[in-house]
Design brief:
The complex is a heterodimer of chains A (about 110) and B (about 120).
Chain A: E1 4-6, E2 11-14, E3 19-25, E4 32-38, E5 45-50, E6 55-57, E7 60-65, E8 70-75, E9 84-91, E10 101-103, E11 107-112
Parallel strand pairs in A: 2-11
Antiparallel strand pairs in A: 1-3, 3-8, 4-5, 4-9, 6-7, 7-8, 9-10, 9-11
Chain B: E1 5-7, E2 10-13, E3 19-24, E4 31-37, E5 44-50, E6 65-69, E7 75-79, E8 88-95, E9 107-108, E10 112-116
Parallel strand pairs in B: 2-10
Antiparallel strand pairs in B: 1-3, 3-7, 4-5, 4-8, 6-7, 8-9, 8-10
The chains are: A mainly beta (about 110), B mainly beta (about 120).
Chain lengths: ~110, ~120
């Protein structure tokens, strides 16, 4: 099983719809979790951290399920500007060492007018 | 405040030449990372610096690649005798590594697009 797995998509979603995607991770010792978004030919940008209790930031909600080892991202009322690749990032080292930081390959989301 | 900056933004070089890529991390960030990303691919970890500790070079693809970080701030990634397969976007990121969960958040620079002809 890969360390961090994501469905590459693309997810084609009409504007205004709700979309959700998951990311699974293999190491139960993983400590920190993040979602990044990457626009075409741009650098990844932090979208949100994922906390154990789940967290919300505007239209975006992130959830963590430690028992099943997955994190999810929910986008409500999707906008055209949400079209991007969403990267799941998992850190299993409490000290943040690079050997514990793994990026998924991303899920490609396309919001259609 | 200022984010991570990288230079040059684009570099075209001939096969066999050496190149140097520069990264200025966010002020006060103790950790610095180099990644590369080929077109349509995921991020590939290259090297990691944390404070004064020895760098984690486990991701460097060959001995043609090296990096240094002077004074705990600016970092330079050097590729010697470039090959066409080195063509990619080279991304630098920094993080605070203090303050719990938030300290692990990485902030990326805009990258250097390297093309080896």
């Amino acid at each position: 099983r890969k360390e961090v797995e994501q469905d590459p998509g693309p997810f084609n979603v009409p504007e205004g719809a709700t979309v959700a995607f998951n990311c699974t991770y293999s190491n139960s010792a993983s400590q920190s979790f993040f979602w990044y978004r990457q626009d075409c030919r741009k650098e990844p940008k932090l979208l949100m951290s994922v906390y154990s209790s789940g967290n919300e930031d505007g239209r975006f909600t992130a959830q963590l399920n430690r028992a099943s080892q997955y994190i999810s991202l929910l986008i409500r009322d999707s906008k055209l500007s949400d079209s991007a690749t969403y990267l799941c990032v998992v850190n299993r080292e409490p000290g943040g060492g690079a050997d514990g930081l793994t990026f998924g390959k991303g899920t490609h989301l396309i919001i259609q007018p | 405040g200022a984010g991570v900056s990288q230079s040059p933004s684009n570099k075209v070089t001939e096969k066999g030449k050496d190149v140097e890529l520069r990264c200025d991390p966010i002020s006060g960030h103790t950790a610095l990372y180099w990644y590369r990303q080929s077109l349509g691919q995921g991020l590939e970890f290259l090297i990691y610096f944390q404070g004064n500790s020895a760098p984690d070079k486990s991701g460097l693809p060959s001995d043609r690649f090296s990096a240094e970080r002077t004074g705990g701030s600016v970092s330079t990634l050097t590729i010697q005798r470039t090959q066409q397969e080195d063509s990619a976007v080279y991304l630098c990121a920094s993080s605070l590594l203090e303050g719990g969960h938030r300290g692990h958040e990485q902030y990326f620079g805009p990258g250097t697009r390297l093309t080896v002809t």
